[in-house]
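Need tokens for this chain, all 219 residues.
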Amino acid sequence: MSLQIGDTAPDFEAETTHGPIKFHDWIGDGWAVFFSHPKDFTPVCTTELGYVAKLKPEFDRRNVKLIGLSVDPVENHAKWAVDIKETQGVAPNYPMIGDTDLRISKLYGMLPAAASGDASARTPADNQTVRNMFVIGPDKKVKLLIVYPMTTGRNFDEVLRVIDSLQLTAKHKVATPVNWKQGEDVIIAGSVSDEEAKKIYPDGWEAPRPYLRIVPQPR
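Here are the structure tokens for all 219 residues:
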């Protein structure tokens, strides 16, 4: 199974460091960032988990829940959290899924369906494709999917930027241009005719080309 943007994020039940969850119920009516790790006690992931913990207030402000996954058991996650706090200054303050049977990793297309065996015997290289980032909306649809190699740390500031865009464009008929940041000008969506746009933006817009209609960010 290969998930695409617009697909329904598969539901599942799992044990986490915050207790058992049913994924769709856990998301509720908000947004979620689900990000995976190939193995506990891996160096790049250690830095990521600590940084995400520091950013959690920013995700909270956007009504976005955070959840991580590693194929190792939940009790190992708790031990890893000690290292994360000591090296990064803060421990994970969001749930971490234990995927010891590889069920969720396979459900989300991060490992091949034929993957099997004891998770504790698998190396990070065995699980190197478990480096995915999913942003999931209140409708339980996948809004963003990014896959990173093991050697490149993820940019969670960029994830916040994309979430700002996703939430804005879900509410208003606009798109965001290259390198857009909160508060900057946006583009009227191509699906909006000029006649409709005049009703939404009675003060008009800047149009260096007929298909490129620029307006201030809606509030």
